[in-house]
């Protein structure tokens, strides 16, 4: 059952990751989702600059101008694959209207270029069907070096003419009439003064640059058709080869990650075993065995089992320390236990860092392979470019989030370990603080994880351009959910206050209302008590009001005994004092006395006897065993001295009736 629990948690985590990734894919590749309005006042066109990142013509503010891009889908990694258009906001229009105007202009240019390319594709296919071949050298076309992506190809012979002219006193780039391609004269783009101002050059120079980029775009489209015709099926073969290579690489990374996960699971199991051994020691003291076997043998075995997963020199030091004190009892273990707990946490943090690096390496490798396989096809290259933009930003965000969480976890472990060492150095009974460390660590790490995940989701949604009104709606939903689950929130708040005020923790023996027992487990939601009969009681933290902690910092034996009223009470007090001092001087029990026994004297004088009260201040959890031993020795001493215990006396009067 213990081995199945991590699998269930892992399965649930995978479902959550898959759901979140599906949401991201929907937002990335289906822009229609961006039109969904989650707020009453949000409109899709209220501000064009808030367009999602997959909108290639999305405008942005560039100084005092508004800019937009026209992107050509072939050379996605080159600066020559785009034209940056600019416009100036006039006094009579709003900034939103200026941004929308430049966006519409970019979209118009994009549609014009696309229509010309479609006409070129149709003409090229007609040329192939008619049996006409390209005028370019067949030998060069079939040379692999010619198609190398770093090789600068010449302008394709079928590329239409692109010219610069003047229309309405404005510089334009246009396509002249070409009956061969069935192309009519049409203006592709008008070069304006804001365009030249943003580029930092004169209008004629910018027109020449844009003319060359448009010609290269048409030429690249035709060369892509030539490649597909000369090497049919090669794109599919290259894509499948990349996918196969990526699959083999992912299998190798998965094998390495599985080994690291196995080591991490063993460390978690050792941490759980160590925590269980601590609980067994405390329960043994609770039940009366102040020198449990786990303190002497089990702990040494636990140290030996760590040699396979931790640094041998460090383990040897701990093991040697354990062997020098073979008769360690529960009050002498805290330093070694805290040191071992610290080593396990440090090793686990290092493994989490390695697992995090391997996980992101696997994700980056998968994205790189998929994008490379997709970019081989010209029609899918623009979508690969869009995914590449997102695959760089979003993983970097989550990498930063997880690194931030890991740093927070390291700081939490560092401070908790220092706290354990500090209390262990001044309090020999601080095994209970070692037990508390696991509770504090779980709560603080869980809180850090929740905060970082919500921060990552917020940054991710902001990066992909989700309308901020969604966050307002999400806040309203959160308030409603909080109102419906106010009992859970009350449990969490009271649980946090219990931990912060240090009322009790794992390892304490407490009385809460009508329930009492050993605190076996606790978190922000509930507390579990193990009673003397073995029953496990679970209490919601919101119902915990008054707590009686019997083992916080120190404990006390409240010893009461009645002796016969006929005894010499001063002699009885001397016998009790002698027994208490003798027991305090005994090496077996002296370590559990914090102060000298207080013989309070005679508390009651009655016909049934005189009540003697003794207080003994002890280590936490030692009051029961020490009290049992003290009562035994008092009885034996009274028997030797002939002291009679008190007994109830009842007078019975008889009367003779006439």
Automatic annotation (TrEMBL):
It is found in: Cell membrane. The keyword Cell membrane applies. It is a multi-pass membrane protein. Keywords: Cell membrane, Membrane, Transmembrane, Transmembrane helix. The chain crosses the membrane at residues 234-253, 363-386, 392-416, 443-464, 470-489. Signal peptide: none annotated. Residues 487-552 form the Mechanosensitive ion channel MscS domain. This is Putative mechanosensitive ion channel, MscS family. Pfam families: MS_channel_2nd (PF00924), MS_channel_3rd (PF21082). It comes from Prochlorococcus marinus (strain MIT 9313). Belongs to the MscS (TC 1.A.23) family. One of its GO terms (molecular function) is mechanosensitive monoatomic ion channel activity. Its main location: membrane. Residues 557-643 form the Mechanosensitive ion channel MscS C-terminal domain. One of its GO terms (cellular component) is plasma membrane.
């Amino acid at each position: 059952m213990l081995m199945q629990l991590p699998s269930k948690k892992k399965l649930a985590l995978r479902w959550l990751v898959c759901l979140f990734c599906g949401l991201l894919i929907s937002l990335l590749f289906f822009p229609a989702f961006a039109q969904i309005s989650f707020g009453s006042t949000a409109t899709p066109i209220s501000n064009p600059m808030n367009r999602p990142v997959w909108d290639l013509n999305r405008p942005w503010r560039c100084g005092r101008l508004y800019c937009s891009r026209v992107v050509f889908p072939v050379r996605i990694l080159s600066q020559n694959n785009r034209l940056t258009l600019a416009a100036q906001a006039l006094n009579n229009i709003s900034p939103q209207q200026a941004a929308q105007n430049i966006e519409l202009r970019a979209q118009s240019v994009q549609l014009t270029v696309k229509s010309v390319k479609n006409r070129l594709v149709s003409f090229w296919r007609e040329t192939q069907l008619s049996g006409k071949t390209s005028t370019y050298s067949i030998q060069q076309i079939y040379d692999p070096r010619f198609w190398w992506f770093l090789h600068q190809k010449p302008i394709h012979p079928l590329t239409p003419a692109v010219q610069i002219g003047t229309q309405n006193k404005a510089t334009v780039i246009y396509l002249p009439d070409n009956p061969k391609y069935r192309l009519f004269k049409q203006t592709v783009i008008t070069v304006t003064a804001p365009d030249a101002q943003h580029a930092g050059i004169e209008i004629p120079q910018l027109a020449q640059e844009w003319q060359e980029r448009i010609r290269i775009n048409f030429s690249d489209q035709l060369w892509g058709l030539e490649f597909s015709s000369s090497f049919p099926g090669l794109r599919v073969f290259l894509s499948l080869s990349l996918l196969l290579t990526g699959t083999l690489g992912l299998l190798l990374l998965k094998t390495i990650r599985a080994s690291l996960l196995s080591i991490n699971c063993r460390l978690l199991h050792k941490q759980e075993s160590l925590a269980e051994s601590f609980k067994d020691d405390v329960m043994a003291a609770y039940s009366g065995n102040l020198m449990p076997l786990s303190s002497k043998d089990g702990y040494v075995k636990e140290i030996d089992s760590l040699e396979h997963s931790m640094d041998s020199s460090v383990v040897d030091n701990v093991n040697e320390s354990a062997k020098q004190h073979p008769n360690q009892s529960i009050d002498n273990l805290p330093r070694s236990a805290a040191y071992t707990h610290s080593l396990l946490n440090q090793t686990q943090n290092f493994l989490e860092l390695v697992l995090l690096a391997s996980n992101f390496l696997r994700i980056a490798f998968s994205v790189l392979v998929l994008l490379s396989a997709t970019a081989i096809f010209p029609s899918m290259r623009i979508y690969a470019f869009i995914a590449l933009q997102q695959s760089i930003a979003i993983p970097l965000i989550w990498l930063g989030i997880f690194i931030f969480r890991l740093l927070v976890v390291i700081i939490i472990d560092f401070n908790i370990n220092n706290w354990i060492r500090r209390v262990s150095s001044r309090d020999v009974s601080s095994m209970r603080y070692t037990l508390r460390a696991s509770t504090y660590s779980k709560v603080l790490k869980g809180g850090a994880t929740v905060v970082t995940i919500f921060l990552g989701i917020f940054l991710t949604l902001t990066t992909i351009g989700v309308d901020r009104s969604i966050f307002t709606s999400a806040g309203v939903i959160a308030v409603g959910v909080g109102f419906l689950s106010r009992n859970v929130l009350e449990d969490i708040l009271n649980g946090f206050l219990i931990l912060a005020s240090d009322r009790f923790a794992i390892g304490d023996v407490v009385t809460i209302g009508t329930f009492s027992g050993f605190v076996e487990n606790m978190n922000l939601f509930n507390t579990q008590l193990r009673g003397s009969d073995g029953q496990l009681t679970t209490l919601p933290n919101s119902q915990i009001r008054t707590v009686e902690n019997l083992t916080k910092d120190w404990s006390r034996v409240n010893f009461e005994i009645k002796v016969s009223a006929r005894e010499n009470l001063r002699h009885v007090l001397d016998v009790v004092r002698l027994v208490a001092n003798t027991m305090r001087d005994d090496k077996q029990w002296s370590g559990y006395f914090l102060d000298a026994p207080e013989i309070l004297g005679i508390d009651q004088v009655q016909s049934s006897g005189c009540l003697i009260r003794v207080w003994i201040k002890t280590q936490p959890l030692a009051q029961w065993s020490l009290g049992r031993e003290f009562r035994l020795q008092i009885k034996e001493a009274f028997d030797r001295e002939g002291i009679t215990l008190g007994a109830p006396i009842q007078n019975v009067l008889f009367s003779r009736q006439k």
